[in-house]
Design brief:
Elements: E1 5-8, H1 13-26, E2 31-37, H2 43-56, E3 59-64, H3 67-72, H4 80-94, E4 99-101, H5 120-134, E5 139-141, H6 149-158, H7 162-168, H8 184-202
Parallel strand pairs: 1-2, 1-4, 2-3, 4-5
The chain binds zinc ion.
């Protein structure tokens, strides 16, 4: 029997790429997504996550993790992935699902947007902690770990989903209706896109 998996889906480029990869690897009926609302300014991304799952016909659950902002103030909360993975683990155990996939990539090409809870070291230790704490044999998978944004664009292109990712996902920290093009998340996304397209042109590939 094919294993079931849960994707932590933010509605951004990385986690949506993980979702599309997982659909290919595990097939649609074995994949579900989980999202967290944690800041009204970032709710735009969650609405993208909903729309993505509706379009792909993937089961999607959304939970409120806003308590983090009550505790830490209105900013990018350091350590938030501890909370997201803990909640995902609790959810997964309740559904007898052992594989949790997250788009964390540990890329530090933009140091201002790299966080210690996005690294491989964090994920390995969090996996051990979850297994001990919940008494379950989870496997946290990070298929994008160590990749640059341009390489993540290539994955979506190879999956035939680059346009889908470009059109349907939202990566801006400011969370307005459009990408601000100024925050570190926007810069990474669009610089990575341009970098990939340039590589593709150099390789003689066709633009899509
Ligand atoms: Zn932005």
């Amino acid at each position: 029997m094919q294993e079931k998996v849960i994707i932590l889906l933010s509605g951004g480029q990385d986690s949506t790429t993980c979702l599309l990869q997982a659909i290919k690897e595990y097939s649609k009926e074995n994949v579900e997504a989980i999202s967290f609302i944690f800041n009204s300014e970032i709710s735009k991304a969650v609405s993208c996550a909903k729309e993505i799952c509706d379009t792909l016909k993937i089961k999607h659950s959304v939970f409120d993790a806003g308590v983090m902002w009550n505790v830490a103030g209105d900013k990018i909360v350091e350590g938030r992935n501890i909370i997201f993975l803990t909640l995902a683990g609790m959810y997964a155990e309740s559904k007898n699902i052992k594989i949790i996939i997250t788009g964390l990539q540990g890329d530090n090409s933009h140091p201002e947007s790299s966080h210690p809870d996005c690294t491989e070291e964090f994920v390995i230790n969090m996996n051990k902690t979850l297994n001990i704490a919940i008494g379950y044999d989870f496997k946290i998978k990070t298929p994008l770990m160590g990749l640059r944004k341009s390489e993540i664009w290539k994955i979506s292109d190879d999956l035939g989903c680059m346009k889908f990712i470009a059109d349907k996902t939202f990566s801006c920290y400011k969370g307005k209706d459009e990408h601000c093009m100024e925050c570190s998340s926007c810069k990474e996304r669009f610089e990575g896109y341009d970098e990939y397209i340039e590589t593709k042109i150099d390789d003689g590939g066709l633009l899509v």
